[in-house]
Amino acid sequence: MRITVADVGKMKNDGERIAMVTVYDYSSALIAERAGVPLLLVGDSLGMVMLGHDTTLPVTLDDMIHHASAVMRASRQALVIADLPFLSYATIEDAVQSAQRLMQESGVQAVKLEGGACAVPQIRRLVEFGVPVMGHLGLTPQSQHQIGLRVQGRRAAEARKLLEDALALQEAGAFALVLEVVPAPLAKAVSERLDIPVIGIGAGVECDGQVQVWHDVLGLFEGRSPRHAKRFAEIGAAMEDAIRTYVNEVRSGTFPTDKQSAKMDEDELTAALT
Ligand code: KIV
Ligand code: NA
């Protein structure tokens, strides 16, 4: 049985911390499912980590559908949520059309969108018509040209606005909320005041759950990780080693061996060649 949005609400009530990770393709989703991740996010961070863009802004609805569909071919247990891309939910009509395509064409169970008060009418309409919506406040990467990539909510006025937005999203019917890069004490206060689960990324341990980007968790790239990330493995280095060994074995003629090759009766070959 697949995890539902009601189950996620129950996890908060039961004090069970919620683990979410992004995933963008079939074979990775199989791994995440085997590891028992309850919530999978097809994030528009795929624009950077899968497609090589500098930001999430160039990601299209078609990109999201392409990746979310691949994830859904692997997923059986998790609640799968996909991001609505930049400006694809600027009006209620846009939000409805975008969510319709994303859900019908990929099969995900919920959508996520960024923003506070400005997103309330869209969330209200989607929820009225049966679309589970996850909110996203704090460092919202789709607004980075306006708000930058710094910590959000450090000053009282900004923190108060964030709490008001969080309550407004809950009131509009969001089933959960992502808080990205906000001070841990503020994230704790928001988590305590909201009935819906608050999933943090760079928001301290007192949120109801955590979300991380697949590549950050696995150490899938070279160079500096974001401050909030912990590399639980060095898979990128392991992949590079494996590929380098493969290339070396091809060059030296040590791969393939008899073990990887089909055999043939000597007489049959002789008959064929004469
Ligand atoms: O796109 C994404 O990966 C996200 C998470 C970081 C919350 O929105
Ligand atoms: Na995102």
TrEMBL record:
Reactions mediated catalytically: (6R)-5,10-methylene-5,6,7,8-tetrahydrofolate + 3-methyl-2-oxobutanoate + H2O = 2-dehydropantoate + (6S)-5,6,7,8-tetrahydrofolate
Coiled coil: none
Keywords for this protein: Cytoplasm, Magnesium, Metal-binding, Pantothenate biosynthesis, Transferase
Uppermost EC category: transferase
Pathway in which the depicted protein is active: Cofactor biosynthesis; (R)-pantothenate biosynthesis; (R)-pantoate from 3-methyl-2-oxobutanoate: step 1/2
GO biological process, one term: pantothenate biosynthetic process
Origin superkingdom: Bacteria
Similarity comment text for this entry: Belongs to the PanB family.
Name this protein carries in UniProt: 3-methyl-2-oxobutanoate hydroxymethyltransferase
